[in-house]
Write a sequence for this structure.
């Protein structure tokens, strides 16, 4: 009986290790697809249409507060990070698109600016504790990472701001992509349910999307850590 139980334990551990290995390989494959896609779109494809200037919601928000430390999530080629650095912010950012990050660093060097960049994904980046006065999540998706909102709350200093903008689900439906975009009130509810935040701005309305530069229904949100 003892030997039988030992064999079961060994089989269980082997199966668990195999499952974790499979998940890890799937994650690596997914991240590689993301890396290639956004390197191609943001750096290689000269015809890809996106806003080369800072996001308007970010610019409006940053203009009303004193510069501090900022984290740009999924920073891409650095348009928002560079804008903040020019305004006196100490800026860090991460993305999987390594060529886009290299482009951002090149632009920073040419403009005598300093950026700290890291090749990382939403779920592997270390957000830190009481570290950021401002975190931007602009066109990075609908926060569908397990435990991300508590991580963001922990990462912000008291009074720190989180700025979010992305496509509404209605925009996805209009594009023929029924699973694209954030559902009505879903982002706001995440922060309300997590607690520890004050919603300063929340709107679901049509605007010019930073990616595609066409009118779409978008979600705009700014919250402050209590």
């Amino acid at each position: 009986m003892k030997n039988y139980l030992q064999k079961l334990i060994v089989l269980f551990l082997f199966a668990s290790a195999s499952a974790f290995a499979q998940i890890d390989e799937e994650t690596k494959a997914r991240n590689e697809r993301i890396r290639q896609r956004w390197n191609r779109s943001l750096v290689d494809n000269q015809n890809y249409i996106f806003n080369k200037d800072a996001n308007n919601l970010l610019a409006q928000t940053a203009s009303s507060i004193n510069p501090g430390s900022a984290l740009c999530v999924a920073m891409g080629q650095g348009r928002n990070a560079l804008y903040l650095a020019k305004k006196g912010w100490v800026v860090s950012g991460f993305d999987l698109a390594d060529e886009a990050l290299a482009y951002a660093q090149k632009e920073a060097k040419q403009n005598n600016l300093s950026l700290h960049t890291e090749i990382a994904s939403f779920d592997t980046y270390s957000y830190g504790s009481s570290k950021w006065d401002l975190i931007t999540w602009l066109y990075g998706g609908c926060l569908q990472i397990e435990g991300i909102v508590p991580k963001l709350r922990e990462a912000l200093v008291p009074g720190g701001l989180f700025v979010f903008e992305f496509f509404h689900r209605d925009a996805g439906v209009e594009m023929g992509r029924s699973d694209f975009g954030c559902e009505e009130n879903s982002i706001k509810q995440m922060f309300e349910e997590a607690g520890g935040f004050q919603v300063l701005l929340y709107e679901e309305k049509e605007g010019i999307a930073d990616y595609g530069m066409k009118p779409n229904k978008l979600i705009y949100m700014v919250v402050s850590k209590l």
Observations:
- Confidence is low (pLDDT under 50) at residues 8-22.
- The radius of gyration is 20 Å.
